[in-house]
Design goal:
- The chain has 187 residues and is mostly helical.
- It has one domain.
- The chain has helices at 2-7, 9-17, 24-43, 52-70, 80-97, 102-108, 119-149, 154-185.
- Helix 5 (80-97) packs antiparallel against helix 7.
- The chain starts with a helix and ends with a helix.
Length: 187
């Protein structure tokens, strides 16, 4: 689960530092963290296909940082959290649409190469990416509702953000265990 926290650190920083429609510091922190993570992972030899979320984070936070520094008031108003979640949802759904689930490159760093071309490897990653995409999409809907009806319900906003991260992460861990157990049972 620590790997997921690292991957989503820019988003966590953005959530913590962005308050009351002021996204400047959150966007700058998210951008700096995304660039730092990309640089560290590339230095470790990670391929770009294992860094889709990190790359997407750098693009989003870079654009938001520029916009928040040049547009006043902040361009997203009270809808920053839902727009950020929508970007992640678009990233996940987009990676599925082009048949390159964002988890595929990550999984290649954890699974022996002999399994990379197996259809089950792709299918497993498509399902896991879909779980993340659904989680982000549900998050968008819930955040939009809260931002419209109860924008100052901080506890509810935080609960939605945490749930949208933890539930797909737990699904990923559990689903990988199930797939592994099925494969071992067929050997």
């Amino acid at each position: 689960m620590i790997g997921y926290v690292k991957t989503f650190a820019p988003w966590i920083a953005f959530a913590v530092l962005s308050t009351s429609g002021e996204y400047r510091w959150g966007a700058l922190a998210g951008f700096a963290l995304a660039l730092l993570l990309l640089a560290m992972d590339r230095r470790k030899g990670k391929q770009w296909d294992a860094l889709i979320i990190e790359s997407s984070s750098a693009v989003f936070f870079g654009a938001l940082a520029v916009a928040s520094l040049t547009i006043s008031p902040a361009p997203l108003g009270d809808y920053g959290p839902s727009v950020a979640a929508a970007w992640l949802a678009l990233t996940a759904w987009g990676s599925l649409a082009i048949r390159r689930p964002f988890t595929l490159g990550i999984a290649r760093t954890m699974v022996p190469e002999q399994f990379h071309s197996h259809p089950m490897f792709y299918r497993t990653n498509a399902i896991i990416t879909a779980a993340w995409a659904v989680g982000f999409t549900v998050e968008v809907g819930l955040l939009l509702l809260l931002e419209a009806v109860a924008p100052h319900a901080t506890a509810a906003l935080v609960a939605v953000k945490i749930g949208a991260f933890v539930l797909p992460a737990l699904f990923t861990i559990r689903y990988r265990q199930i797939v592994r157990a099925r494969q071992e049972a067929t050997r």
